C-alpha cells in the first residue's frame, strides 16, 4: 500500500465531491474530518466539552450542534432534495434544519463523508463527481 495515495489530503476532501443518491438528488459532500469541519466541530462543541466528556450531553442538543458543524463543511450543497414532496432549496438555514430534523439523513451524510474512497476516486479522475 502506498501511504501517500491512501492517506494524503486531497483538495476534494475540502471542496467536496458530487454524490448522486438517486435519479433526482445530488449531494456535495466533503470529507468528515477535513480542516474546516474539524474547526467548526471544535467551535460548536467547546461550550459543551464537559458534558460531552462526562456522557451527559442531551441527544437533541448534540444533534443540533453536529448539524451546525456539518453545514458548509461536510454537507456543502444539494440539488433535488425534497421533504414531503416539496423541493428544498439549498440554504445554510435549510441545511441546519434538515440535518437536525432528520437524524437518519444526518447519519447518511456522515457515512458518505467518512468514505475515503469517495475522495480518492475523485482525485484519480479529477471530475469532482463520484
Structure description:
The protein is α+β, with helices and mostly antiparallel strands and about 130 residues long. It has one domain. It is built from 8 helices and 5 strands; from the N terminus they run ααββαααβββααα. The strands form 2 sheets. It has a 3-stranded antiparallel sheet. A two-stranded antiparallel ribbon has the order 4-5. A hairpin with a 2-residue loop joins strand 4 and strand 5. Helix 3 runs antiparallel to helix 5 and helix 5 packs antiparallel against helix 6. It is flat, with a radius of gyration of 15 Å. The protein starts with a helix and ends in a 5-residue tail after the last helix.
Largest sheet: 3 strands, antiparallel
Work out the helix count: 8
> What letter string, H or E per element, gives the SSE order?
HHEEHHHEEEHHH
Class from helix and strand fractions? alpha+beta
Poorly predicted spans: none
What form results from the Cα inertia axes? Answer: flat
Q: Overall mean pLDDT score?
A: 90
| Beta-strand residue percentage | 5-15%
Q: Roughly how many Å apart are the termini?
A: 22 Å
Q: How many domain regions?
A: 1
Specify Rg, calculated over alpha carbons.
15 Å
Assembly context of the chains:
single chain
Helical content (DSSP H or I, runs of 4+): 40-55%
The number of strands is 5
What is the topology, as strand order, of the major beta sheet?
Answer: 1-2-3
